[in-house]
């Protein structure tokens, strides 16, 4: 494979590094590298800290770099709080994906460090190369389809925004260069505010771009069929039914413990390998409580909820 002949690439983005993350990235580069180029990007959260020892990133982005690319959205992020909790990490993503070293590529995959795949990475990116969409992501749905999503209140859009805004889940997602360029221009000035999972899909639609789901047929179709790369519908994306959500799915990467990944050729997120033992114990307890609740007969679960309301 000659990189200059490719139109797609993968960019692995992380702000931390460890031997486990290094093995995870090397598997991605080895397997996905058979079908498209793979790059390593480091988000340097403190300008006084160099990339960790043993890490050789292709791209290094600092917060001040993001401030220069999308100044208005960066100022909005500062007012709202940390990137991870405020939903403004797209200012880092856009800055990385529009780096001049990636200028030869027309479609760019972004993968956060805690995304994993229970199979050969080439088996994910190869088939999806034929999938259309300026933005390709998970759980693509409109506000009318999922009105109770907690981040809708953060969204503020101009009068040109869609009447029924769209949201998506994007720890692993693909962007066309034209969409990235448009987003950079639009987000540099006032007009759009809020969580990236609502801003980017709705902005894309407002400017005539297409938004598609990684799962063939979207999230409303059958959960188990060829072409589906994550399980669950957006209505239960926060439960243990889902392999791809905002709540931890596991604490070891596929490269180290493949037997823990029960469903083959499936996206798993997030995999948190660098948590303290106490944090892991708390999350495991929460997951077991979820499993117990889902195993209970419906009438027993309803009785427990009734008792809690009375107490």
Descriptors:
globular, 311 residues, single chain, two-stranded antiparallel sheet, 9 strands, 7-stranded mixed beta sheet, 10 helices
Set out the fold topology.
Blueprint: E1 8-14, H1 19-32, E2 38-44, E3 59-62, H2 63-69, H3 71-80, H4 83-86, H5 90-97, E4 107-112, E5 116-117, H6 122-128, E6 135-142, E7 166-176, H7 177-187, H8 196-206, E8 211-213, E9 267-268, H9 277-295, H10 298-310
Parallel strand pairs: 1-2, 1-4, 2-3, 6-8
Antiparallel strand pairs: 4-7, 5-9, 6-7
Helix pairs in contact: 2-3, 2-5
Q: In words, what does this structure look like?
A:
The chain is built from ten helices and nine strands. 33% of the residues lie in helices and 16% in strands. It has helices spanning 19-32, 63-69, 71-80, 83-86, 90-97, 122-128, 177-187, 196-206, 277-295, 298-310, and strands spanning 8-14, 38-44, 59-62, 107-112, 116-117, 135-142, 166-176, 211-213, 267-268. The strands form two sheets. It has a seven-stranded mixed sheet. A two-stranded antiparallel sheet has the order 5-9. Helix 2 crosses helix 3 (71-80) and helix 2 packs across helix 5 (90-97). The chain has 311 residues and is of the alpha/beta class.
């Amino acid at each position: 494979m000659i990189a200059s002949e490719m139109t797609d690439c993968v960019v692995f983005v992380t702000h931390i590094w460890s031997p486990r993350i290094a093995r995870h990235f090397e598997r991605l580069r080895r397997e996905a590298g058979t079908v498209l180029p793979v790059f390593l990007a480091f988000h340097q959260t403190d300008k006084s800290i160099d990339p960790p020892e043993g890490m050789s990133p292709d791209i290094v982005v600092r917060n001040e770099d993001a401030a220069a690319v999308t100044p208005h959205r960066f100022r909005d992020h500062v007012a709202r709080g940390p990137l991870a909790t405020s939903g403004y990490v797209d200012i880092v993503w856009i800055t990385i994906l529009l780096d001049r070293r990636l200028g030869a590529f027309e479609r760019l995959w972004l993968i956060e460090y805690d995304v994993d795949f229970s199979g050969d990475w080439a088996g994910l990116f190869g088939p999806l190369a034929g999938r259309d969409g300026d933005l390709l992501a998970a759980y693509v749905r409109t506000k009318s389809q999922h009105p109770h999503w907690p981040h809708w209140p953060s969204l503020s859009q101009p009068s040109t925004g869609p009447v029924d805004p769209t949201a998506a889940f994007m720890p692993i997602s693909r962007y066309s260069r034209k969409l990235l360029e448009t987003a950079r221009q639009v987000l540099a000035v006032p007009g759009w505010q809020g969580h990236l999972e609502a801003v980017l899909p709705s902005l894309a639609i407002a400017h005539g771009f297409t938004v598609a789901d990684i799962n063939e047929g979207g999230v409303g179709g059958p959960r188990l069929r060829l072409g589906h790369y994550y399980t669950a519908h957006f209505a239960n994306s926060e439960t243990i039914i889902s392999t791809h959500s905002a709540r931890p799915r596991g604490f070891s990467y596929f490269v180290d413990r493949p037997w823990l990944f029960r469903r083959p050729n499936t996206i798993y997120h997030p995999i948190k390998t660098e948590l303290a033992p106490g944090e892991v114990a708390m999350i495991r307890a929460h997951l077991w409580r979820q499993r117990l609740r889902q195993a209970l007969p419906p009438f027993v679960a309803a009785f427990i909820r009734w008792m809690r309301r009375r107490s």
